[in-house]
Structure formats: C-alpha cells, structure tokens
Design brief:
The protein is mainly α and 295 residues long. The chain has helices at residues 2-38, 42-46, 60-66, 69-100, 110-122, 127-136, 154-166, 169-177, 182-193, 195-211, 214-219, 228-237, 246-255, 258-293. It is a multi-pass membrane protein.
Length: 295
C-alpha cells in the first residue's frame, strides 16, 4: 500500500513538472515572438510571417526608437519616477502598516482607521477630482505629479499589515522590556524580519512605476516631461519620418513599421524588469503568501 502511494506521488510530481514546464514555455513564447518581430523587416512582420525567428534580420526598429534624444530623456524621467516613487511608497506603507498592526489595547482606534483605509480601496475620488487637485497644487508638469497621487498603495498596506501581525508578539514584548520604543522595534525588529514582504512590495512598486503611462498623458503638458512608457506609446501612434532625409526615409520605411516598432518598444520596456526580477524572485512567493494568510 505504501509502495502504491509512493508510485502515485512520483507520477503526480512528474506530471506537475511537465505541466509547469509547458506553462513556462507558453509564457516565454510570446516574448520570443515579440523579440523576433522587432528584429525582422517591416514586410515580413506586417505579412504575419514571423513566428519565433527573425526574418530578414535588421535592427532598424531599435535604431529608430533609440536614435532620438527624447527616448533617453524619457528614460531619465522614468528613473526619477521609479526611484522617488518606490522609496516614497515603501516609507509610507511601512509607517502606516506598523501602527495598524498593533493590538487594540495598544492602539484603540486601530479598527476604525483600518476600515477607513479599506473604504478607500473600494471607492476612490475619481480621475477628475484627482486631476483638479494635482492642477490646483501646481504639480502639473513636475515629477511629483507622477509620484504623489499614488504615494500610499492601500493594497500594499494591507499586505504588510498582515505580515507584521504574523510576527510573534513575544519578540516585540522582549524588545519593549529591554527599553526599546516603537521606532526601535520597527527598525530593529519588524523590518529585518519582513525582508520577503518588503522585497515583494519593492517588486510591485518597481513594475507599477515602470509600466505606468496614463499619468504621464494626463499630468504632463509638455512631451519633454513624458516618462518612458508614455513616450513609447506616442511614437507608436505618431511615427514621424520627417526628420530623416529622403533616401534615409525610404530605407527606414523598408524595415520599420508600426508592428516592428511596437515590438521593439515592448521588449525595451520590459527588459529592465526582467533583469531585476531574478534577484527578488526568491522573496516574491514567500512574501506574498505570508502577507495574505494572517488576519
């Protein structure tokens, strides 16, 4: 009977390996296809002939995207947004999640504030009031318009709050007996034990700020202040060959189209996150699970 269970468990395990391998391949294939399209000529790409390998290999799509000062300027704006936004998000989330993770006898109004925060997850002020606040506070066309409106991701507060609640209270009590205050307990006890959760939130914030494009469209009046994703969206919709000479334009049009340029910008836009993710992946699943099971 035990042997039958062992055989069944082995078969089930190999089945899981096979299923997850196929699932991983299915996730990678679209990215490979996008990469192949970006290195193919416009004729082959527009004809739908490109599958997983470039046809009539060319780098003109990347040259078209990269050979503009606006591209590097938009990268600078995005890097500012990612650094400032991620740092602000983590600081605000930590400072809000810690007091809300305390017991009611320590923080009597904890439940009231928690429900107020949950309410903001379900009902927001809306796009127009947010735009009016940003405009009236003179944040338009500044980096702060891309950072401050989303400074406190409420879902992240809930995740970190639940993670803090899962930390044994005996550790906090021991630190308190030794004379530690709340600041010391937070920075010396809670945060070092919350590395998986913080790494998960860091990844969420990095991806969110890097991929965000809509706030750049509505809060930036000048294209010079566009973040990367907003700029890339603009060059897809408005392909401009007027700056090229006549012969250069003809050559460029042979190998560059909306399809190849879109593929190039998708790959360039996702490349930094793909490079960062492997360093945070080992914390990702642990952090998101531990931050969601405690109530």
């Amino acid at each position: 009977m035990v042997q039958d269970r062992t055989i069944s468990a082995t078969i089930f395990q190999w089945f899981n390996y096979l299923f997850l391998t196929l699932l991983g391949i299915l996730c990678i294939i679209p990215l490979i296809h996008v990469l192949a399209v970006s290195f193919s000529s416009s004729l082959e790409a527009d004809a739908g002939a490109v599958t997983l390998w470039p046809l009539q290999f060319t780098t003109d799509a990347y040259e078209y995207v990269l050979n503009k000062p606006e591209f590097f300027r938009s990268i600078g704006v995005t890097l500012q947004k990612v650094v400032l936004g991620t740092a602000l998000n983590l600081v605000m989330v930590i400072l809000l999640a810690y007091p809300l993770s305390q017991e009611v006898k320590t923080f009597p109004m904890r439940t009231v504030y928690a429900w107020i925060i949950v309410f903001t997850m379900l009902f927001s002020g809306g796009l127009i009031p947010t735009y009016m606040i940003v405009k009236e506070t003179h944040l338009m066309d500044t980096i702060w318009a891309l950072v401050l409106p989303g400074a406190i991701p409420v879902f992240h507060v809930m995740m970190l709050l639940n993670f803090f609640r899962g930390i044994p209270k005996e550790l906090k009590e021991a630190a308190h007996i030794d004379g530690a205050g709340h600041w010391t307990i937070l920075w010396r006890v809670m945060l070092p034990l919350s590395i998986p959760a913080l790494a998960t939130l860091l990844l969420f914030n990095l991806v969110g700020h890097w991929n965000s494009w809509f706030d750049g469209m509505i809060y930036m009046n000048s294209p010079e202040n566009y973040p990367l994703q907003t700029y890339l969206r603009t060059i897809i919709i408005e392909l401009d060959f007027t700056a090229l000479g006549a012969m250069d334009a003809i050559h460029q049009l042979e190998n560059v189209s909306e399809r190849t340029t879109r593929a190039a910008q998708i790959f360039l836009g996702s490349l930094p996150i793909m490079l960062v993710y492997p360093f945070l992946q080992k914390y990702f699943m642990k952090g998101i699970v531990l931050g969601s099971v405690k109530g």
